[in-house]
Amino acid sequence: MMHSARFHLPVVLTEHAILRMQERGIPEALVLDIIDTGMQKDAGNGHYWLYKHIDTRDDNLLCVAAVIDNVVVIKTIMHHWEPTP
């Protein structure tokens, strides 16, 4: 099981997130890097966008949609993401 150093919580991936990771060639280590070192944008009610530009990828920005409570639940993994103002 993954654990976030940033949030001091375990990380749980939904089936949807696992499928998107596989489709987009994003390993667990990269997801954890985005969670722990990426930019954080509040999406309201405990939901967050965690995103990061990865120099070695051409499908940036990579974004993790997360719910943070007593665990970090990763709902999906997106690419070509753009934060809204």
Number of strands: 6
Shape: globular
CATH class: Alpha Beta
Average pLDDT across residues?
95
What is the count of distinct domains? 1
N-to-C SSE series? EEHHEEEE
Number of helices: 2
Distance between the termini: 34 Å
Largest sheet: 6 strands, mixed
CATH architecture: 2-Layer Sandwich
- The share of residues in extended strands comes to 35-45%
Runs in which pLDDT lies below 50 for 5 or more consecutive residues are none
CATH topology: YaeB-like fold
- How is the largest sheet built, in terms of strand order? 1-2-6-5-4-3
Radius of gyration: 12 Å
Helicity, in percent? Answer: 10-25%
Going by helix content, strand content and strand pairing, the class is alpha+beta
